Amino acid sequence: MISTFYKKIEQYRKFDYKSFFNNLNSCTIENAIYSRNMSELEFLTLLSPLAENYLETLAQKAQQTTIKHFGKTIQLYTPMYISNYCNNECLYCGFNRENNIKRKQLTFDEIEKESKEIVKSNIKHILVLTGSARNIATPKYILGAVKVIKRYFSSISIEIYPMDQKGYKSLFAAGVDGLTIYQETYDEELYAKLHPSGPKKNYHYRLSAPDRGCRAGIRRINLGVLLGLKDWREDVFLATLHCAYLQNKYPSTEISISLPRIRSHTGSYTPHASVADKNMVQILTAFRLFIPRSGINISTREEPLFRDNIIPLGTTNMSAGCTTAVGGHTKDDSTKQFEIADTRSVKEIEKLIYNKGYQPIFKDWQYLN
User: Fold this and answer.
1) Which pTM does this prediction carry?
2) CA–CA gap between residue 299 and residue 296 (Å, rounded)
3) Cβ–Cβ under 8 Å, residues 246 and 253
4) Residue 129 predicted with pLDDT over 60
5) Distances (CA, A) of 63 to 104, 237, 275, 356
6) Is the pLDDT assigned to residue 265 strictly greater than 60?
7) What are the residue ranges spanned by the domains of the chain?
8) Cβ proximity of 182 and 191 under 8 Å
9) Cα angle vertex 317, ends 173, 106, to 5°?
10) Residue 47 has pLDDT above 90, yes or no
11) Which range is least confidently modeled, 113-122, 173-182, 272-281, 291-300?
């Protein structure tokens, strides 16, 4: 189970990050950058304020490491929102059940219509999203949706409410090969405040969901934290340790991380802390050096210019042609979960990637019955 990793989280929640950072010097930063077998604390060193002075060196080494393990390729995917009903009261989310928004759940015919529209762009990797309303977007409904979607896409990932191992296994058998689940924050006390009610309030059940997905046979697990909920250094550190734990325990599973910053959404939540572009570069490059074989996803939450410039710095997956509205690829008549920043088409992103000297990948996996 995840008990050993959870004990590590407890250990680092009591850790004196401020003192650790204050005791660093240029020598410890440089030793961490060039470490052949980087330790957890050396990785934390690269997240320090002092390490901001070494971004150019971090960027060069991250680029070399990424090309070594992934080549000059960028995997493309797009999200498909099929339901925005939710039983949770997440303070930072537009789908919060307390928000007075237009709710919608697609029929299977509407899901097929969305699928037909998306495949026109040549996208073959899809991320299917719902709100967290198990009584409406039921496991049976999601299974039915997957059966429709797999007629059109070679790879299907899901971003839904946490399930037990049996639930994940049934989705895997139906054609789901990827699971995205963000812990949002690894600070258990803050987590409780951000999720005052609803099933998502169960911190530990969500924390152990990636383990259940791995044991169910799902081949790709994507973790993440929502940057802006608290000081980013601690959350990024623990999310990265979670990735390392999963990669070591389940070596046949592909592990990746997402680095989303809070965007404008329905509701009144104000981010606790800002995360500057230079800090995003620091996070991305430090992660790449600590876990060279893990993927890094950069979504359309980010501004176009920023996405353009970070392609060489460790990115392996990018979303394109996105909408966060239910049925948004065919008829945008429901409330968006949040506002995206990069509204460019798949064709425009494809051209950008080529211009950067990289190859866009539309398909690298085929599900076989």
Assistant:
1) 0.94
2) 10
3) yes
4) yes
5) 42, 21, 22, 13
6) no
7) 3-361
8) no
9) 50
10) yes
11) 272-281
